[in-house]
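Translate structure to sequence.
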């Protein structure tokens, strides 16, 4: 044969992807952890700061399941802020003086949906992390 294209079946492509994933598992896990660090930082930066320990209670949680490694930004049930974290994330309220000062210093909106907005704010950084760690 003097040229042409060889078509690899779906099984071959799947096997190549699985092999690459095994070989790059450490890089994948590092990328996911780094993405979690950015999401955590961005979320804490946006959390209201008044009475309580909300900022210190926001945590990065790494997990593994059948789909692989995952990361979540959470406020653990046993944290000091667990009783009021959900209303602070979902509720509508006026910022207190400490939160207003934090907002002026941070240059970002502080208040409700702090985790959701933190993750959204990190998306461009997530892409840079993926490029650096995985070359994609």
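Result:
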């Amino acid at each position: 044969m003097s040229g042409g294209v060889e078509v690899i079946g779906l099984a071959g492509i799947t096997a190549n992807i699985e092999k690459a994933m095994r070989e790059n598992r450490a890089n994948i896990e590092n990328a996911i952890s780094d993405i979690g660090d950015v999401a955590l930082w961005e979320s804490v930066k946006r959390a209201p700061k008044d009475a309580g320990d909300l900022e210190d209670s926001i945590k990065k949680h790494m997990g593994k399941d059948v789909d692989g490694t995952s990361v979540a930004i959470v406020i653990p049930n046993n944290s000091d802020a667990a009783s009021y974290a959900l209303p602070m994330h979902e509720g509508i309220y006026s910022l207190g003086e400490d939160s207003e000062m934090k907002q002026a210093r941070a240059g970002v909106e502080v208040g409700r949906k702090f985790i959701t907005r933190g993750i959204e704010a990190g998306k461009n950084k997530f892409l840079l992390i993926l490029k650096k760690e995985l070359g994609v």
